[in-house]
Amino acid sequence: MLGLIREDDLVSLTMALVAAGGENPGGTEEATVEVLKDFCERSGLDVSTDTVAPGRPNLTAVLPGGTLPGVLFLGHSDVVPAGTGWDRPPFEPYTRDGRLVGRGSTDMKGGLAAVVVALKALREAGVELPFTTALACTVDEEDRGIGIRAFTAAALADPAFSYSACVVAEPTDLTTVIGCRGDSYLDLEITGRSAHSGRPADGRNAIDAAARILDLVRADHARLQSQPDPLLGAGTWNIGLITGGTGISMVADRCSVSLDRRLMPDDDAGLIRDRLMTQISDAGIDSDGISVEAAVSMEMPGFRTPEAHPLVANAVSALADVGVESTISGWTAACDGGFVARDLGVPTIVMGPGGLNDQAHQVNESVRVAEIVAAARAYALLCLRHGGT
User: By three-state DSSP, how is residue 349 classified?
Assistant: First the structure.
């Protein structure tokens, strides 16, 4: 079976996926999904798509098997905007010094290619698994997560959905990640009252109020850092966007602030918003002509799988058998796996080719070809050894 996983197939498919683009925001994932769909259909997998927004289809590719709970692989078809400064056009992939270069090569077209080539090899080898194995490839992972929300909603309504393990093929340098932080966006709208800047006391300055709120945010960030989790570190606040005012000579009557709040697995973004609003009121910020509204515009849950879970040992041993010594760790990033763990109750790990910190979202993004090959072979072995429990 492992001999059916060929480097040439993985390189050509990864290149085709990279060339299809899918920048988010700014484009759609449709072309990438078409490449993936064509390969999966030619490989004899059962393929279905679900359009969750115009030009944005989720894809599911299934290798049918028996009735035991199976293995679900998870990936996404979008990439972050390429930006400038590349040595060559970012969506014209090429290989150099054993690496495949192009936007999305690491995050996460190489991982997608590894999964479907592994499923193809299992089918061509005539392996009869006692469970169904599938890839769910969702849209919009890099922004608001509309794809994974649609997938989990459909899975909850499907009585045939039965998986006891999920492997997210995001880039981990083939480290076996057993826990991830989540993420959330909080949007604040602060309203005051305009006045002439020569008489600022006649108005109520929304930017001044925002500055006081950000003092509260910074203080909470420092509190969180004093209580780190051994595996995942701590939750964090980041002030991402701020706009306000209408002119230098006017008291600002409006200010908007967008905050990124990284979540621990047990955190709830709604409760965090409520706590911040209570702090704002206790500090007297939303009084005397100042009003504050806060909304959670995005939430991606974190997760944690016990190190003793059989899925973890299976992943580590599969990698060892293809020549990769995989450590077990946590991830400070967020991924769609949190939805599968939280909403569907499926034990989840992250394990895939490419580097998150040194390659993902970077100019001249690249992935080692040898890692894509090792990932595909490990995925196939993991399926062979999965107990279905």
Answer: strand
